[in-house]
Amino acid sequence: MATIVLYKTARSVSRRCTGAHFRSLACSREPLCTVLPGAGPWFSRGAGVRLISYGTAGKSAASRVGRRALVLGGAAVVSAAVAGLVANASHFQRAEMATSIVPVPEVRELEGDILERCRGFMSPPVTDMNVLQSRKDEMRTRMEMLIMETQAEFCKALEEVDGSKFKVDRWERKEGGGGISCVMQDGKVFEKAGVNVSVVFGNLTEEAARQMRSRGKVLKGKDGKLPFVAMGVSSVIHPKNPHIPTVHFNYRYFEVEEADGSKQWWFGGGTDLTPVYINKEDALLFHKTLKDACDKHHLQHYTNFKKWCDRYFYVRHRGETRGIGGIFFDDLDSPSQEEVFSFVKSCARTVVPCYLPIVYKHLNDPFTQEEKDWQQVRRGRYVEFNLVYDRGVKFGLATPGSRIESILMSLPLTARWEYMHEPAKGTREAEMLEVLRNPKEWV
Asked: Which residue ranges traverse the bilayer (predicted)?
């Protein structure tokens, strides 16, 4: 079973890879050639066999280091600082990874030299590279490198499709940290594409601390202060052609230092697809790619996180989901930091192979004005969810020091609202609405 990856030629792989580990990927003999409709030859990455204990968080019995193509995707509103990382008071459930596991030694993937890896980024990292070098084994550094790589790989993939370039915008947060926003507007393929990285730190406000306590976090500050660091990569892509879906993803890490110097940490994130018209082959590819990544770590992850995604991206006042879902999780902090990071890394690396083949497949699909109008109506629903329900957006807009441009990056350039709009029965528009009102199991 193969996972489609972006690179069309070994030369392209070599050009994009950074660091000794990444350069070696260009020489790998493992990929097999797969042909996608309308896309030409692509390299496929062997899925690899993971030994998993049924019902537990299984771990890899053997390393695939040096044989995996690096495929990363970047992701949407990390908001101003803590955004979706702390605004979770109304979350549906707490993500749990089983704590009872078969004792298989953890095999940490070689991550390469910091300076070498930074050369392939869209911009220098938010944190000074000398600081990253000095604490390269700390999770906050490893996660920052992952989200920077995710941003770079996804942006380069989209630039290759569109022919346009991203505008790279570095910003600073006076309270601590900053971010890198990459935005493409009015391109040939993408009406608006945004891929943001945010790395912020400081002390939690009392309101943020209260929200975390309401989620079961027992946090003990010193002199009323709770130092934190929050980071993430997020993206929303709005194509021009109504037959190419909108995609959103977000992967993030949060760390709080308590009075005794101990640290609490957790991860969150997910990837979801919002098509304008249902294409069962696209839905299967998208969900199966996510499921394959989840299954490497726990056979129940895809089922649990797919259900959570359907519940979270639900437009209650419309009685419909925002799209056809994907995966979504938050507060993931067990069984170990290394295992959770490995899981998040696997999820982040699915973004290109679960989306780019769909883009290429529909790149030259013709469409009518009526189909474009339906896309605009669906865009309106997307805006409604983000402004009315999305925790990250709401929290970011209410947080001092917020960068509004980054928060609202997820909104499309154009959208449409029609009074009492309802598609005619038997149409493809009605078929789409039926799926949104009754989410399906695609895999």
From this structure: 69-87
